[in-house]
Amino acid sequence: MAYAYLFKYIIIGDTGVGKSCLLLQFTDKRFQPVHDLTIGVEFGARMITIDGKQIKLQIWDTAGQESFRSITRSYYRGAAGALLVYDITRRDTFNHLTTWLEDARQHSNSNMVIMLIGNKSDLESRREVKKEEGEAFAREHGLIFMETSAKTASNVEEAFINTAKEIYEKIQEGVFDINNEANGIKIGPQHPTTNSTLPGSQGGQQAGGGCC
Amino acid sequence: MSDSEATAAAKGAEVVQEEFQDALEMLDSSPPTPDISTDVAPTRKARRRPEPKPAAAEVEEKPKTPSDSTVSQGGWGYWGSWGKSILSTATATVATVGQGLTQVIEKAETSLGIPSPTELSAQAEEEQKEQDGQSGRRRIGGNGKCDGNADVPHQCRPEYYVIMDITPKLNLHIFFSLQGKTVITGGLDALEFIGKKTMDVIAEGDPGFRKTKGLINRNSTLSQVLREAKEREELQQTAEEESDSEKKAVAHYGMLFDEFQGLSHLEALEILSRESESKVKSVLTTLSGDELVQLREELELIKESFSLVEFDDEEVDEKKDEDGSEFEKEIMEALEGLSITATAEKLSKACKSTCSQITDMITPQEEESEEDMKTAPSVESEMLNVFLFHHEIHAAAIRSLAELTARSIELFHKLAEMILFANGSTEAGVLSQLTVVLCKEISLLSKKFTSCLTTAGSNEKGDVLNPLITGVFLEASNSASYIQDAFQLLMPILEISHIQRRAESSEQ
To answer: Which UniProt key words apply to this protein (chain B) (predicted)?
Structure first.
């Protein structure tokens, strides 16, 4: 139950690209072909292990509908990672990436790790966006890239976990100030007797566990 | 049983049995006056205890002196090992308060406005002073602590005990120490009142604890309070997993609340509330003269309807709404036209499953205990079963309260999103009605659960049952205040929505 870190993620992208399905596949390991439209934001959480440390991912799955945009923007702040999702069978969802990216960069902290996801890779026959295009966009904007299928679960784990790995590395490099909750990272509740879960075991980090 | 049957376990069982019988006798023989206080009971019982003590018990009681009061603590010790998991002795993670128990209780007592418990408390204290020549308060403190941790009955430091009490989860302790005096009256009103008073008193000495009142003071947010509670519980649980081999179903409200995503919805609601609040402020700075006066008046009207929420616990009748359908009806009525049916359905589903859970608990319980009699001749294991059963009810109650509260907050969050999204006119009155319905439901369910506990434990001593019952009432009271606080978060959202609608209509 106890975790070393908690990372806040947001999932963003056009409506119908499969954001909620990716989350459901990641948290519950199941696929639901028909999903209700997300209103505002919904949540999921799961524990993962990186470098022997328990990390809790708290995922904010936002509504993709344009009309919700002004509300969902409010939720970007304080996210450590973002999954920016498009649908490989719908070119328009790929074309909107720039707007999403600008929005995300503007309303969140600059260190936020962004993973670009081309979802629905199982629908190869209906593909409209080539994998190379996704890769190129990611390279150009400094994002990590992956093609996933929420239906077959292909690469879904990897997408969430690789994002966490990137965040974790940034913490190790000292890019993220983990004591600042605006970065979307919280240190887990510290056990008073065992220091094994303490990263680097700096005493000062203890304070971060409580609150701000 | 004879002394030649000299296994330690058997002896232990014997003592437990004796104590149990003593307790039953006491219940039978005592007049129904409030002085069947649990503070007093163990002492009396100890006096009646037969002289030749089993060897096993002596080993356990080794560090004790033969004085009356400590013998009584030995009595507590046995129950104490049970109580251990009830109170789940947390390590003192919050060590900010150095205030002694004596002081706190004193303050609590003087500030309590309820006459009968106060009298009772005085009475109980008198008795204790007579009995052990110690300060009554100190003694209670010692007992409470010992009960929580049977291993160190003689290192009970009242100060330490209070420090532990500061954690919201462990509010139970304070009640526990007070229970002999105050819980007797039994009413939720009284409990709520005492709870509030106690919090006030503690908060005076501890700025950190003021966080429970975060929304009033604006020092910290409700989600922070709850997150801290959850984190403490997580720590506790890790500690329990590491050290405690005897696995018991300890219900952690905060963790369950988080599991049902209550914390996340609350955080999101707070974000929306904060942003709306700053938008309202910035709009007000751009206006001047008559326009400003008029808008201020309009906003004042909205504010008023947020301060009018009254919820009378007396009206809650536990007999009604057995399956939760009435609640569903009321919720749906309150939410008509607000287009958040999915969330509301989740809520009433949670409520219905709780109701059916309670019904299940009441009915098969008696059969079960009969079966236990047949299959488990050992008194010890039978008692353990009864004990576990109480714990199951308690755990189910805490879980249900956590779930319903989380769902209620989810509902408020979704409402906030819909109000901002659709920008239709939502009457504050509807929302306050909704709040009342939710709080009533929480109160109703807590009453059902506690009467369930009372029925299941009708043969039980008060000191086993009371902490559980108190715990349920306490979390119910907390749940209701979280819901009311979340309701308050909707105010800036209605304000900005009003301003936006106003702007739209003036454009046309």
So the answer is: Phosphoprotein
d(CA B496, CA B26): 63
Residue type, position B173, single letter: H
At B355 the pLDDT is 80
Does residue A196 have a pLDDT over 80?
Answer: no
pLDDT at position B101: 42
Please indicate whether, in this complex, the C-beta atoms of A67 and B421 are within 8 angstroms of each other. yes
Tell me whether residues A192 and B93 touch, CB distance under 8 A.
yes
Of B196 and B426, the one with more pLDDT: B426
pTM attached to this predicted model: 0.64
Percent pLDDT > 90 in chain B is: 17
8 A C-beta contact, residue A134 and residue A118:
yes
Q: How many CA within 13 A on the CB side of residue A135? A: 3
Which residues in chain B are contacts of A67 at CB distance < 8 A?
421
B-chain residues within 8 Å CB-CB of A68?
A: 417, 421
Distance CA B250, CA B236 (A): 10
Give me the residues of A, 52-111, that contact B with CB < 8 A: 58, 60, 67-68, 70-71, 74-75, 77
Residues of A with Cβ-Cβ distance to B414 under 8 angstroms: 39-40
Q: Does B488 contact chain A (CB < 8 Å)?
A: no
Smallest CA–CA distance, residue B139 to chain A, in Å, is 29
**In degrees, to the nearest 5, what angle opens at C-alpha B354 toward C-alphas B419 and B375?**
165
Measured between alpha carbons, how far is B281 from B492 in angstroms, rounded to an integer? 10
How distant, in Å, are the alpha carbons of A107, B85, B167, B241, B244 from that of B236?
37, 11, 12, 9, 11
How high is the pLDDT of residue A60? 97
Neighbouring residues of B222: CB distance < 8 A, sequence distance ≥ 6: B214, B215, B266, B270, B482, B485, B486, B489
Supply B502's token pair.
């106003």
Place B382 in a pLDDT band, splitting at 50, 70 and 90: low
Please judge whether B238 and A71 are an interchain contact, meaning their C-beta atoms are less than 8 angstroms apart. Answer: no
pLDDT at B305 over 90: no
Residue A150 has pLDDT above 80, yes or no: yes
Q: Is A45 on the interface with B (CB under 8 A)?
A: yes
Question: Looking at residue B92, what is its pLDDT?
Answer: 33
Residues of A in contact with B413 (CB under 8 A): 40
Provide the residue ranges of all domains of chain B, joining segments of one domain with +: 183-248, 253-362+380-505
**Interface predicted TM-score (ipTM) of this complex, two decimals:** 0.86
CB contact under 8 A, B340 and A189: no
Contact predicate B191/B477, CB 8 Å: yes
Residue of chain A nearest B220, judged by CA positions: A212
- Position B51 pLDDT exceeds 60: no
How close A25 comes to chain B (CA, Å)? 18
pLDDT of B90 reads 35
Which residue of B210, B219, B264, B341 is the best one to mutate when testing the A interface, meaning the one whose CB has the most A CBs within 10 A? B264
B340 within 8 A of A39, measured Cβ to Cβ: yes
**Assigned token pair, A20:** 């909620």
